[in-house]
Write a structure and sequence with these properties.
The protein is α/β, with parallel strands linked by helices and about 800 residues long. Helices cover about 35% and strands about 20% of the residues.
């Protein structure tokens, strides 16, 4: 018997290993096995069994089995295979992206001796003892060294046992090596459970004459015990104000008992279903349409205005699945969106809900993974990576804000789009997928109106609240003394003051973080640039640094021009930091907060800021795209878009779609409760056609114009795009590689080929970049053939000594 095994490497195909007879029993697809490749050991996943021996080579044997039952299931293996084929990557890369770190081991792992264990190895078996002794002497060992110590015996089971016994740690996850979280619980000693014995104890004066604090601690314990089901050590010490020594004294006297128990890292709520709201007539109609479409179609698009109550429709659909004991996956594009929706879903579904995203520690991800695999979590809310969880009984997938570009993974591979991948994943379970948005992507809306998807519409705000009034402010009429752009125009300043006077809140949107996007020498016009990238440096005043927003390199502030020696610089344009500073001058009594990548670092920073704004402890919130997406605030009556021109001036075919979506979404934050919202858009190009669609909230008119333009130039949804990127540290080599590659593609796809050419930013991290693009007809065989040719040409190019080190990256459906 042979097995095709996926290992977490970017290999062109999966390799085959032989399954020894003694490992056959109990080994199933989805289990991890220990295999060797080029003298390095890996924990791979068995994809399938084969009976025929490969003709070209003799497979090496699998060395050990790491799991008694599958870690992932058949449908996850099918998903990995589809992602690999569709997005032109290896299944090993999908595996590396899918599994929590604690499930991945490789020969590069370093074992580090745990000094706290000491040198008493009497509890270890022979193999464990040999490795532990070597670790005691050298403190660190790589897996190949462990292999030598054990003379080729199975390494991973021994390593796993040593880790479980806390003899050592894995270096890569030293801080996050999975270990069940424990809590100390305090109970009364069995001798004093009866009321008579307890009363006798409390009345023994001699026993307590010298230990008043211990008596107070015991009384505190008895008091807490009456109101709480269980008493934790931390809660008892906090409530009583006693010391740890006093608690230990009661334990030593066999009056109290301390017991360590494993607890969940994630707060466990009672499981219940509470749906206290009633849907409006418009919501009921939309829900009915969705149900009808789901009878014949597997995907439905819900197009609903901002604040129309789409989430309540989702909640009703989730309730239906929960009552049938099914699982639901609820995707949101960014972590920033999760805090509000988590609170809403927890209030309705309690402990049925689980959350999964990149801000969780590896320990927390490990626990959630296992809860989903065992079917304990019924509703999973998460960002795009939640797609890889091992669901067993999935019946509904909700993709909220389906238009959002954050659903597309950029780097590293797999470069998948979570919306499209979710549709395929749901199909494996014969589950339904609901896409929701106030501003659907052109592709999704096209699929809906042409009948591929169902279409449900919710085109009125909840409670028939009016849409916000939108006004344009022509910034050409206003200039600062140094000729730079005005940040807050007089009209916007007056509107902000009016909102503050009426105890209302304000959101200001600017899609640039930092203080100043670039600074210019007053004499010669020189602009400080990143040494590694072809971009100007952004000044961050709070950290007093110049930052490259592409590679992350920081530089000290520049005070002397490198070209002419002048010491005077002009700050050009403005970011969220500068806006915050300006607001502090204009509105000194207002509480101002900033929401961008720099200001909301840390696991709970988003949630704390959003809660502060909800509770009206913040008057003005200024931020980047984070303030745009799906947030629901009752008291916002004014939204300001400070520089709409920056959204409208990109050389990219989706520029109009993105600009419309961003402006419509951010304007939807205003007047959600009373319909008295106002949106002021500061813009120089007031005649831009997209602005008229935004002013009238007219998505359908925008869609009609955009669709005509897409059809004229053969862009999606009328074509399928594959972009191929070339990177190398030498500019001439990357230019030559792209030209050679394009020359070969031209023979088969000349009519569909654009480029090669340099992108807008032609060098990042000291790598020069070239791109070419294929706009292919939506024909399955043509697209499959194009992928095959690209893979062949990539292999040919990298067999050429000159181009061997050129990185060639295909990206399917780039956004």
């Amino acid at each position: 018997m042979y097995a095709e095994v996926i290992i977490p490497l970017a290999l062109p195909k999966n390799y085959t290993w032989q399954v020894p007879d003694h490992l056959l029993e109990g080994l199933q697809p989805g289990c991890r096995v220990e295999v060797t490749l080029k003298n390095k050991k890996y924990a791979g996943i068995v994809k399938k069994f084969l009976t025929d021996k490969p003709e070209a080579f003799d497979p090496r044997p699998i060395e050990s089995v790491l799991d008694a039952e599958p870690l992932i299931y058949e449908k996850q293996l099918l998903l990995w295979e589809w992602i690999s084929q569709y997005y032109m990557c290896s299944e090993g890369e999908v595996m590396a992206a899918s599994l929590p770190a604690h499930f991945k081991l490789s020969s590069e792992s370093i074992l580090v001796f745990n000094e706290e264990f000491g040198d008493d190895f009497s509890s270890l078996d022979h193999d464990e003892y040999l490795v532990a002794e070597a670790l005691l002497l050298s403190k660190e060992l790589k897996i190949p060294a462990v292999q030598e110590i054990l003379h080729g015996a199975a390494v991973y089971p021994v390593v796993k046992r040593l880790i479980d016994k806390s003899v050592c740690y894995i270096y890569e996850s030293l801080k996050e090596l999975y270990k069940p979280k424990t809590e100390t619980y305090i109970t009364l000693h069995p001798d004093y459970i009866s009321d008579e014995k307890l009363e006798s104890l409390l009345n023994e004066d001699k026993k307590w004459s010298m230990a008043e604090k211990q008596m107070e601690l015991l009384l505190s314990f008895l008091h807490i015990q009456k109101t709480e089901p269980e008493v934790t050590r931390s809660a008892l010490l906090k409530k009583s104000g006693a010391s740890d020594a006093q608690l230990k004294a009661l334990i030593t006297k066999n009056i109290l008992v301390a017991e360590q128990r494993s607890v969940d890292r994630l707060r466990v709520l009672p499981r219940n279903i509470q749906i206290p709201f009633i849907l409006s007539a418009a919501q009921e109609s939309a829900l009915s349409v969705i149900r009808d479409h789901f009878k014949s179609k597997s995907v439905c698009l819900l197009h609903g205005y901002t604040s129309s109550g789409k989430t309540q429709v989702y909640i009703k659909l989730i309730e239906e699945q929960l009552l049938e004991n099914k699982q639901v996956l609820y995707l949101v594009p960014e972590i920033a969106l999760t805090s509000q929706i988590v609170r809403r879903l927890q209030s309705h579904f309690g402990g049925y809900l689980g959350i999964y995203h990149s801000r969780f520690s590896q320990n927390e991800r490990f626990e959630i993974w296992n809860k989903v695999r065992k079917g304990e979590i019924k509703i999973l809310l998460g960002a795009r990576s939640a797609l890889f969880l091992p669901f067993t009984d999935l019946s509904l997938v909700i993709v909220d804000e389906e238009h959002d570009s954050s659903y597309k993974q950029q780097d590293p591979a797999p470069r998948y789009h979570a919306r499209d991948t979710a549709i395929y994943y749901a199909s494996l379970f014969k589950a339904k997928t609901l896409l929701g948005s106030a501003t659907p992507s052109v592709e999704s809306y096209y699929n809906a109106v042409t009948g591929k998807y169902g279409l449900a519409e919710l085109l009125e705000r909840y409670g028939q609240v009016a849409m916000p009034v939108i006004q344009l402010i022509d910034t050409k009429k206003f200039f600062q003394k140094d000729g730079s752009k005005v940040i807050i125009t007089p009209a916007l300043q007056e509107a902000i003051q009016d909102s503050l006077d009426h105890k209302k809140q304000v959101i200001l949107f600017r899609n640039r973080r930092g203080y100043s996007p670039y600074q210019v020498c007053r004499i010669c016009g020189w602009i400080p640039q990143c040494k590694n990238c072809d971009v100007s440096l952004t000044f961050h005043k709070m950290s007093n640094k110049l930052l490259c927003h592409y590679c992350g390199t920081s530089y000290p502030p520049v005070n002397t021009c490198a070209a002419c020696g002048n010491h005077e610089f002009i700050q050009r344009n403005f970011g969220t930091e500068k806006i915050e500073e300006e607001l502090g001058v204009l509105f000194p009594k207002a509480y101002i907060a900033r929401m961008d990548v720099d200001s909301v670092r840390g696991k709970t920073a988003h949630d704390m800021l959003i809660k502060s704004f909800e509770q009206q402890r913040v008057d003005i919130l200024v931020g980047t795209q984070m303030v745009v997406k799906g947030l629901d605030f009752d008291h916002v009556d004014l939204v300001g878009i400070l520089d709409a021109d920056s959204l409208l001036n990109f050389s990219e075919f989706r520029v109009n779609e993105r600009a419309f979506q961003l402006m419509e979404q951010v304007s939807g934050r205003a007047g959600r409760k009373d319909g008295k919202g106002k949106v002021l858009i500061q813009v120089a190009n007031t005649k831009h056609p997209i602005l008229q669609f935004v002013i009238h909230h007219d998505f359908k008119a925008f869609y009609a114009q955009e669709l005509a333009a897409r059809q004229q130039f053969s862009y999606p949804p009328f074509s399928r795009i594959i972009r191929v990127t070339f990177k190398h540290k030498i500019q001439d080599i990357v230019h030559d590689a792209a030209s050679v590659f394009a020359l070969h593609l031209h023979k088969e796809f000349g009519a569909f080929l654009t480029g090669p050419g340099e992108p807008v930013v032609a060098r990042i991290r000291n790598q020069y970049i070239m791109e070419l693009m294929l706009k292919l007809p939506k024909n399955g065989s043509t697209i499959a053939f194009a992928k095959q040719v690209i893979q062949q040409q990539r292999a040919i190019l990298q067999n050429d000594r000159k181009f061997r080190s050129v990185t060639v990256t295909p990206d399917i459906d780039p956004v």
